[in-house]
What we know:
- By secondary structure, the protein is α+β, with helices and mostly antiparallel strands.
- The chain contains seven helices and five strands.
Amino acid sequence: MGALIRKLFLTIPLLLLTSCAIPMEDCTPYEFGTFEYRECQAGNGSKAFQFQLGMEMYVIGEFDTARKLFEQSAERISPTMSIYQPPIGNESYGTIHRFDNPNAHPGNNAARYMLSRMYTLGQGVTVNERRAERYREDAGGVLVRVMEKEDHFEITYGQDPNNITSIRGLDGKELEDEQRRRVLEQMLALGIMETGRFLIQKRTGDEI
């Protein structure tokens, strides 16, 4: 009987935890690429869409909302989860069981960079260089660039080439600066380095 109770105790919480991977809201009614679609996906926990939606709020000056979205995107989700099993029968102590977490995620580095920028510049928050530095270190060399065009913003993010101090050719020799620059550009273009690009259309009136 004790073994059966123990099995039921572990199975039911695992079912509840794994069900968290199912989106809370069905996003299919929204057209892909729309603000509503991105908002739905961000609400369902997508780190990429939380970052993108955060950038949309950032470029229009909604810094408080942007910060919250960046924090959600940057948050790490542990690769393991623990379940405490109370004592069963004549047992005098409980047991902690650890399982792989299907929702594990290292967090979004581009979002961490944006948080470092906000705390450095005091955008919607009090300037806090210590916190900014912590986010910069956690970002792992990823930078975010915002370019304003006539009718849209162009967002690019990727690793800072200056953080890569050594690149060697097939012969093992260190590449010259110009060769190194071309290789880095090719790596970014091919997506070998952590990189991405998207556009944010400028909005007017009450579109958001």
